[in-house]
Predict the 3D structure of the following.
Amino acid sequence: MERIDVKSLTREELRRELEAQGEKSFRADQLYQWMHLKLAGSPKEMTNLPLKLRKKLEEQYEYVCLETVEVQRSRMDGTCKYLFRLPDGHVIESVLMRYHHGNTVCISSQAGCRMGCRFCASAIGGLVRNLRPSEMLEQIYRIQKDIGERISNVVVMGTGEPLDNYDNLLVFLKLLSDENGLHMSQRSITVSTCGIAPRIRALAEEELSITLALSLHAPTQEKRRELMPVANKYGLSEVLEACGYYFKKTGRRITFEYSLVGGVNDSQEDAKLLAALAKPIHSHVNLIPVNPVTERGYVQPDKRVIRNFKERLEEYGVNVTVRRELGQDIDGACGQLRRRYLEK
């Protein structure tokens, strides 16, 4: 029989589970705090729980705690890339990025990915499986424990498509923002999607205050289809309509993630077309000079092209930033560290 993953249970579910086991309801609150506030590595650390309950947790339930396989630390900017092993042996990666406004962690939502974006190493090898809420949380918890500092921002922008793991994502968001756990403000959480239009609309109904980022990467349907196979199922107009609906329902400004690929989507005409898409829904454009991926053959535009592209967008009145390039001396691109590990 499959054991219950206690770290993926909401506080209400945990209370019902322990009460069904004959435990007092306050034990659930104690256990919840050990897992989500004190970030205990195992039930053995939970000293105010009865020994009998601790043994029951070890023997009858699953207590997910990720194993750190490898950590790459950038000497240039302090960025750290973590490779974690899941309970079933598969590996995922997460990134710690240090900014003046605090520590940001970029987490994976799936082991592998089936979206197949051409410029991304994460999709090479396809989807292995979805991550459970506990496995998404644990990436944050292990990094916070490792550095001894609070994580102030989380971006669900690593390996995987979060909206392809929709139900687990919602539980993860609830647990991460729960006042009895890390109590992270939802406004400090960003979820990135390649454009699953029906799920964007569904997310708009969830009454969340997270930031939604759309991996746009091309200003036309034809060019987007070349870079992102998901565009064959959800056309650009359908995705933009869903984003407009999200903005209308939540009042939260959409971020357009736009990977600049040398000679592919970085022309002045591309900038003009992108501005025409961004302005009607008051979106913010985040330009990302693409990290070269050997298997894909894409290259980064030179600095002048990036600067001219940004300036053209600003001329059209678009709010735009160029993402600061971090971790250039380590496997910085999404999926690269996991890819290299699997090849070894």
Notes: The CA atoms of residues 64 and 134 lie 7 Å apart. The radius of gyration is 21 Å. The chain is about 35% helix and 20% strand. The mean pLDDT is 92.
